[in-house]
From TrEMBL:
Residue span of region Disordered: 1-64
InterPro entries: Antitoxin_Rv0909/MT0933
Protein name, entry field: Antitoxin
Pfam hit, one: MT0933_antitox
């Protein structure tokens, strides 16, 4: 089992909190780098949210 699989298992049911953590971390990195790498940080945030399932909108479920 990979580290990412273990993290996903731990975060199951707490996707919204994981998404908030990803957002806060990205904002902190943007502050420390003075926005120099904001495009890369945003891309990383989006990919992490997809991996953890926190990019899903509860009011707008994905279509099957």
């Amino acid at each position: 089992m990979s580290a990412l699989d273990k993290i996903k298992k731990m975060l199951k049911g707490h996707e919204d909190q994981a998404g908030k953590g990803v957002d806060r971390t990205g904002d902190m990195i943007d502050d420390r780098t003075q926005g120099k790498h904001s495009k890369h940080v945003d891309t990383g945030q989006d990919r992490l949210k997809q991996q953890f399932g926190s990019d899903r909108d509860p009011d707008n479920p994905p279509r099957a």
